[in-house]
Design brief:
about 425 residues; 17 helices; 6 strands; about 5% strand
């Protein structure tokens, strides 16, 4: 009887933890427009989901500390605190506190078998299902705008009660001639939807390779008319480095050329292709320049403004207090160098890379997550980007691997178990 009770209790704990994991996955994707708002303060659905998830996993006895990540987190926060104290007149304590809350979950890892006999494959399958749902929504949204001209088709935020709506300034509805770019219905911006579709395409093509899923996600990616997803695909195709890297890149370029030849006029794909010009200095008001070029100018001009700024930065939350004659974005690499200096940059870079050091996710997908975090947006304090990385790979038990790869690792179970104790 006692064994039966134990099995039943473990089964219940697993179901509850699975539900919490699914909620976390949904919070960083289809629920990203939701949150809690009081006055000028908004807390995203992702931030609201991560700590209850950790609490449930901890109460179930399925959570352990990663020693290496804990040490790195402590080092990062020590640098951030030093930057705050040195720059106390201009730095923001609330930004420092948010940074601490954002990366504290990175020190935790689930125990092996917490979600399923094969944890990594279970999470991977759920992620692909969510990507499929979002792809279908994005394609349907783009098609329906020909017959439905209501604003809610691209931005339903006004229908969400104000206390439950995530506030912020977003480019949700972006016209392209007489049509709007697809934002996947659920997402705040087409670029975010584009990035998720790229992740889904990578995950599907390196695993199950189901043609209809690949076609649907590729179609959804095209309808965003965003370069973010395309850049993620190109960067991911570089991995693993080797002789085949050039062949993979050539394959993607040829496939893109074929799609452009077949559908270029029908889908106005010349609009997407023309965005390459945004990186030139003559396009200083363009999205590409603001996102990828202007931050480099800012860092170069301000890195040694004050004593110690090159090492510990100008302080938390100060990047947008800087006035320049040009508009700039705050990608992670620039925000780290500007606010926390070289020490902060190296510390957080090491923490994120260590989080990605798991065989539970294909290297191409890990590469897309890394470059997405580092260069494709202001993701240092983005719960959606950071916690998507956690749910896909960071929380995965050290010994867990995708089902096709498990057979290759069964010859060394003792190593996996011993290292899991330090995960």
């Amino acid at each position: 009887m006692s064994d039966a009770v134990t099995v039943s209790r473990n089964s219940t704990q697993r179901r509850v933890l699975r539900a919490a994991t699914l909620l976390l996955l949904l919070s960083v994707t289809v629920l990203e427009r939701f949150g809690l708002t009081a006055g000028a303060v908004s807390i995203s659905a992702a931030m609201l989901a991560i700590y209850p998830f950790l609490g449930i996993a901890g109460l179930a006895g399925q959570l352990v500390l990663s020693l290496e990540r804990t040490l790195l987190y402590g080092l990062c926060m020590a640098v951030a605190l030093s930057s705050l104290l040195v720059n106390e007149e201009s730095a923001s304590f609330s930004s420092f506190a948010l940074l601490g809350a954002m990366y504290l979950p990175f020190v935790f890892v689930l125990r092996e078998g917490a979600l399923a006999e094969d944890d990594a494959s279970w999470i991977y399958a759920r992620f692909l299902d969510v990507c499929l749902l979002c792809a279908a929504a994005g394609v349907a949204q783009f098609a329906l705008q020909f017959v439905i001209h209501a604003h809610w088709l691209f931005d339903y935020s006004s229908y969400i009660p104000a206390p439950l709506r995530m506030n912020g300034i977003f480019n949700t509805v972006i016209p392209m001639g007489s049509l709007n770019k697809s934002n996947g219905f659920f997402f705040r911006e087409p670029s975010g939807f584009s990035y998720l579709m790229a992740l889904g395409l990578i995950a599907e093509t390196v695993s199950s390779k189901r043609p209809w899923r690949v076609a649907l996600m590729a179609g959804a990616l095209l309808l965003t008319y965003s370069g973010t997803g395309i850049l993620a695909l190109l960067l991911a195709s570089l991995y693993p480095f080797g002789v085949k890297t050039v062949l993979r890149l050539a394959g993607i370029v040829l496939a893109g050329a074929l799609v452009f030849w077949l559908l270029g006029d029908a889908l106005n794909l010349s609009f997407t292709l023309g965005r390459v010009n945004e990186f030139s200095s003559d396009s200083s008001q363009s999205s590409g320049y603001i996102r990828y070029v202007a931050p480099g100018r800012l860092v170069a001009e301000t890195l040694v403004d004050a004593p110690f700024s090159a090492f510990i930065g100008h302080g938390p939350g100060t990047i947008f207090h800087t006035l320049r004659s040009y508009e700039f974005h705050d990608p992670t690499w620039a925000k780290l160098l500007f606010e926390y200096g070289a020490f902060g940059f190296l510390g957080f870079l090491s923490l994120f890379l260590l989080t990605l050091r798991r065989r539970s996710l294909p290297v191409q997908l890990r590469a897309a997550l890394f470059w997405g975090w580092l260069v494709m947006g202001g993701h240092l304090l983005s719960p959606e980007q950071n916690f998507l990385t956690l749910v896909l790979v960071g929380l995965t038990p050290f010994g867990s691997s995708l089902a096709p790869a498990r057979a290759r690792t069964e010859s060394a179970p003792a190593v996996a178990v011993s290292r899991a104790a330090w995960a």
